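> call design_seq(struct)
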């Protein structure tokens, strides 16, 4: 029978022939990662060996790159295999800090550009070292696809640009990381995106804002720096019911701390600059697609959904938005983050254990007020945190002092803890959010954003806990 494969007619003698059989005959590399279309329609993986081909059928298959047991999370990170094994047997994926890749002939180069070969063509689009980080996160999380970007903000902006356009809206809360609020409220608003704010602790409020132009509900699993926790399952029920995407910024609770698919999150975006980088070695971001969203429900991506099925977002990103915006992670950063990822679980456990001990210490201190940490029984979010997270509650806590001046005196009095704007570093860091990340907002907006002049944020590292406590103690005692 005659079948058109990737635009070329092929005479195939085998009959009856399934799509899976055809991939085998054609020696398609990594058939588990390929997206297959029959007569322009996506074929589900489970149907590949049930779908019979007939004379004149058109079959197309595409690679998007960046896509991948019963083993544990840390084991899966450590033993994930790259696309191609290193010719020297290097156990660590080397840094391919190159731009271009050579092909043996023009046909191969064309096939790589068309996505008909699992190959890298140009490092802004995909790169072996960056892909290895993507594969490791994909293996560990069981996601459909993972994409690594130049920063957490690049992950958020690429995702929103891919799923929504001018006139569309997303529903979120004002209790967000300051730059994310600025991205939504300034940068993307100027391009026609509408942003609707709700109190996500009241899912019904979010539900009442959904209209036919709503593309997503966006929330932070633990908001920075308010440390509020939304009920992900409740938001997911609304998103599913309304046919919109549920997107979680999981920066404060990366995979291992939070199993996003289990709680109905369709897409995770996160700053891998934090825990994953292994101690603030490099800036980076990840988009993790759990493969749970039916893209035919998103009017912008609907035209692609028939052809690409669950790979619709990955196709739109890799072959348009991510490629065109040029927010690729650098191979150097990908190497550092891949090495960082190897010890993620150890470092998350250590920093969360320290954070809980320090939160308890501050709770007992007469100087610190409003001690806020989801691991404390007194936190209004404790019950949700126990349900949603992996028995640990993140490395960030906040508390209040009497005034901004007192906050500054406390910060200046610290001898060990570093004054720096980052979170989930290996070192403990301190910051006054109102005068730094939120300094561009007036006092009314800061209030709406839940950022007080009297609030101090601590990001707890992995030092010996008693040393951190002693430093906090001496600076608090010097306040009088
Ligand atoms: N989302 C949250 C919750 C953050 O805290 C941050 C940075 O602190 C970001 C996103 C942005 O990440 P990046 O600095 O990697 O762009």
């Amino acid at each position: 029978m005659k079948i058109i494969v990737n635009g070329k007619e092929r005479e195939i003698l085998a009959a009856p022939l399934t799509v899976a059989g055809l991939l085998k005959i054609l020696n398609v590399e990594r058939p588990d990662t390929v997206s297959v279309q029959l007569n322009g329609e996506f074929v589900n993986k489970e149907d590949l060996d049930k779908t019979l081909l007939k004379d004149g059928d058109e079959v197309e298959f595409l690679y998007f790159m960046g896509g991948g047991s019963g083993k544990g999370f840390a084991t899966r990170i450590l033993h994930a295999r790259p696309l191609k094994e290193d010719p020297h047997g290097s156990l660590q994926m080397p840094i391919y800090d190159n731009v271009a890749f050579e092909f043996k002939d023009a046909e191969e180069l064309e096939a790589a550009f068309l996505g008909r070969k699992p190959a890298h063509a140009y490092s802004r689009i995909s790169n072996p070292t960056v892909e290895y980080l993507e594969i490791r996160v994909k293996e560990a999380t069981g996601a459909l696809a993972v994409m690594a970007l130049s920063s957490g903000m690049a992950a958020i902006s690429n995702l929103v640009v891919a799923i929504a356009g001018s006139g569309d809206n997303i529903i979120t809360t004002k209790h967000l990381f300051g730059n994310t609020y600025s991205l939504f409220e300034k940068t993307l608003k100027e391009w026609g995106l509408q942003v609707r704010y709700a109190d996500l602790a009241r899912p019904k409020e979010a539900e009442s804002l959904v209209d036919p132009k709503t593309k997503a509900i966006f929330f932070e699993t633990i908001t920075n720096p308010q440390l509020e926790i939304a009920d992900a399952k409740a938001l997911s029920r609304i998103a599913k019911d309304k046919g919109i995407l549920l997107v979680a910024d999981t920066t404060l609770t990366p995979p291992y701390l939070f199993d996003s698919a289990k709680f109905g999150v369709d897409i995770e975006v996160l700053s891998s600059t934090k825990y994953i980088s292994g101690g603030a070695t490099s800036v980076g971001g990840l988009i993790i697609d759990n493969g749970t969203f039916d893209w035919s429900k998103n009017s912008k991506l609907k035209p692609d959904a028939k052809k690409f099925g669950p790979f619709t977002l990955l196709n739109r990103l890799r072959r348009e938005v991510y490629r065109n915006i040029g927010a690729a992670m650098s191979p150097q950063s990908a190497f550092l983050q891949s090495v960082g990822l190897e010890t993620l679980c150890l470092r998350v456990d250590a920093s969360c254990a320290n954070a809980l001990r320090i939160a308890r210490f501050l709770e007992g201190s007469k100087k610190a007020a409003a001690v806020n940490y989801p691991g404390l029984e007194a936190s209004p979010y404790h019950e949700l945190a126990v349900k949603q997270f992996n028995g640990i509650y993140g490395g960030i806590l906040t508390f209040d002092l009497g005034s901004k001046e007192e906050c500054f005196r406390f910060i200046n009095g610290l001898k060990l803890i570093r004054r720096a704007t980052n979170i989930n570093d290996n070192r403990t860091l301190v910051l006054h959010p109102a005068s730094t990340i939120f300094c561009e907002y007036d006092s009314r907006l800061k209030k709406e954003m839940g950022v007080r002049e009297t609030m101090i944020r601590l990001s707890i590292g992995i030092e010996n806990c008693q040393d951190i406590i002693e430093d906090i103690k001496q600076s608090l005692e010097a306040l009088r």
